[in-house]
Amino acid sequence: MKQSRTEATHSRHRRIRRKVSGTAARPRLAVFRSHQHIYAQVIDDNQQHTLVAASTVEPELKEQFSHGRSCQAAVSVGQSLAKRALAAGIKEVVFDRGGNLYHGRVQALADAAREAGLEF
């Protein structure tokens, strides 16, 4: 039987997480895309600690966009996450697309983070 879209995303995420892990030297940039918003975190999996985070539910980004489901909102999240990561001394990360396809909002966030200075 064919998987639903949510089940397919979860199975892709589990498969990715078997291979992708963040360390103190190269933390994991994890992206979560809901229907209304997009969230990104830089995580050290060894310490199980979130180092930096950004999302469209934050007040400064919420003022700019009426909703967080646009590529422009994802670009803003990627840029603000990269600024915060660079300020925290994080330059290299491992990208975790969270089971989502590398397309649309996820790709826009990743490209914006790269342009703002993160390396992955």
From TrEMBL:
SUPFAM superfamilies: Translational machinery components. GO terms for cellular component: cytosolic large ribosomal subunit. The keyword Transferase does not apply. InterPro entries: Ribosomal_L18 (IPR057268), Ribosomal_uL18_bac-type (IPR004389), Ribosomal_uL18_bac/plant/anim (IPR005484). One of its GO terms (molecular function) is 5S rRNA binding. Residues 11-20 have a biased composition (Basic residues). Residues 1-23 are annotated as: Disordered. Residues 1-10 have a biased composition (Basic and acidic residues). Pfam families: Ribosomal_L18p. One of its GO terms (biological process) is translation. Gene3D superfamilies: 3.30.420.100. Keywords: Ribonucleoprotein, Ribosomal protein, RNA-binding, rRNA-binding. It comes from the Bacteria. The keyword rRNA-binding applies. Part of the 50S ribosomal subunit; part of the 5S rRNA/L5/L18/L25 subcomplex. Contacts the 5S and 23S rRNAs. Belongs to the universal ribosomal protein uL18 family. This is one of the proteins that bind and probably mediate the attachment of the 5S RNA into the large ribosomal subunit, where it forms part of the central protuberance. This is Large ribosomal subunit protein uL18. It comes from Pseudocalidococcus azoricus BACA0444. The lineage of its organism: Bacteria, Bacillati, Cyanobacteriota, Cyanophyceae, Acaryochloridales. The gene is rplR.
